[in-house]
Design brief:
Elements lengths: L3 H8 L3 H9 L6 H14 L1 H12 L4 E6 L8 H16 L3 E6 L4 H9 L5 E4 L7 H8 L4 E4 L10 E4 L1 H14 L4 E7 L9 H17 L2 E7 L3 H14 L5 E4 L2 H13 L9 E7 L1 H6 L5 E4 L2 H17 L7 E4 L3 E2 L8 H4 L7
Parallel strand pairs: 1-2, 1-3, 3-4, 4-5, 5-11, 6-7, 6-8, 8-9, 9-10
Antiparallel strand pairs: 10-12
Length: 346
């Protein structure tokens, strides 16, 4: 049975253009429309596609489930949504952002009334009740993230483990051996949140394996939390020469307040931001070294995976990790001891 991809290939256009012609949703030039319609006739696409839609009662709508009660709608989240929406449009689907409600019954309503063909879960926890409910409802789903045991599920995820190890590699090359990982304080609804757990476990495992000293400090996930942590860092961990920060908003407050306390970055302290954007890195002074979060790419991959499962074109389960590039920024230098400079002091 011919697909939109087949028509697009024969007509020499994008899948999105074929979708515009099929659904009459956007203007298409007469010449392009003629090529698409000719390809549809040659491939017998229209009759088969309509028959398949009527038989399956497909809406070609996908819900992107995001828990807004626990996570703010950041610029990074917007990049996930943008990538997902672009991929869906190219494949002839529509993505709807579904803010996860506090009422579990709302999830049942979403999947039982036939409004959506499948669900993409974001901000996945290690033990995620949403997965169990969707599987029980036989709703097709893909994860952007991983549960504790994702062996029977399709998922794409950030390679946080690889990003942490890459950051420690670079700092260790410069001579650093005393590290702090800055995480956000525990919040209700975020217990067992996959990225936080994996970053912490990887950080301590790598430090232990290499004979490095690593400890964890926590602060509120905002600039005020970062500013409050600065004094704690100076007072309680003066031996530290390198820090990895998991929350970008806290990082900006931390760097700003350290400057006010007279701590020079990178001369006295090197800083790496884990899983953020170039824009956040450059908002700090100095610009922070950062492992970039491949948000747009993962949004696209999530949709492509789910659509492949819905359309029957995806064979084996997809398990894929993506690691963003490492940008040096201006916050890296050898540790003060190596340079004969004073250690961290306020």
């Amino acid at each position: 049975m011919a697909t939109m991809r087949d028509v697009a290939r024969l007509a020499g256009v994008s899948v999105a253009t074929v979708s515009f012609v099929v659904n009459d949703s956007k203007p298409v030039s007469p010449a392009t429309r003629l090529r698409v319609e000719s390809a549809m006739v040659e491939l017998d696409f229209r009759r088969n596609a309509v028959a398949r839609a009527l038989a399956s009662r497909r809406t070609r709508m996908i819900a992107l489930l995001f828990p807004v009660l626990q996570h703010r709608l950041s610029d990074t989240a917007a990049r996930f949504f943008t990538g997902a929406a672009e991929a869906a449009s190219e494949l002839g689907y529509t993505v709807v952002l579904w803010p996860e409600p506090s009422d579990p019954g709302a999830l049942r309503e979403l999947t039982s009334d036939g409004l959506i063909d499948g669900v993409i879960l974001m901000e996945v926890r290690l033990d995620d009740h949403r997965v169990d409910r969707l599987l029980a409802a036989r709703t097709p789903l893909t994860l952007i993230g991983r549960t504790r045991d994702p062996s029977g599920l399709d998922y794409v995820d950030v390679d946080f483990e690889g990003m942490v190890e890459q950051s420690i590699d670079r700092l260790q090359e410069l001579g650093h051996r005393e590290f702090v990982l800055v995480e956000e304080v525990e919040r209700e609804g975020l217990d067992g949140y996959g990225p936080v757990v994996r970053v912490q476990e990887t950080f301590h495992a790598v430090c232990d394996e290499r004979g490095l000293r690593g400890r964890t400090l926590r602060c509120a996930p905002d600039p005020a939390g970062g500013r409050a942590l600065a004094a704690t860092l100076v007072a309680e961990a003066p031996e530290v020469t390198a820090i990895l920060v998991l929350n970008d908003r806290a990082a900006l407050g931390l760097v700003s307040e350290l400057g006010k306390l007279g701590v020079s970055i990178p001369d006295e302290l090197s800083v790496v931001l884990i899983g953020s954007t170039r824009e956040v890195s450059e908002a700090a002074d100095p610009a922070l070294a950062v492992t970039l979060l491949p948000a747009t790419e993962l949004g696209r991959m999530g949709v492509e995976t789910l659509v492949g499962r819905l359309d029957g074109t995806l064979g084996e389960l997809r398990h894929e990790l993506v690691k963003g590039p490492f940008l040096e920024g201006e916050s890296l230098a050898p540790p003060p001891v190596a340079n004969g400079r004073a250690r961290l002091s306020g």
